[in-house]
Specification:
mainly alpha
Length: 101
Amino acid sequence: MQAIEGTDGLKDRLWHAQQEVLQHLETTLQAECGTEPGDPTPILVAGQLAWVHSTLMAYIRREMVAGRKAGEVSRDALVLLDDIEDLFGEKVLNYARRAAE
């Protein structure tokens, strides 16, 4: 984590990788849900999931660079994830859900 924090090139590369993941997620959601062209829902849901990932990773990176132990950080990150989940409505939480097989 400290290597990433101290290197602009690595931070830039990480940002580009995150953008590629966002695009792939959007494309996958469109395909899985069979959305019509112009339907913004896959874009919006992909953006929300990217925000969750970005927020968790930023929290973990900050805490690890501060010297906290990985076990403590992971437990606190799970609490943060629960707090994030509470912010979402049913439309986002249930989007692209598959039936259990």
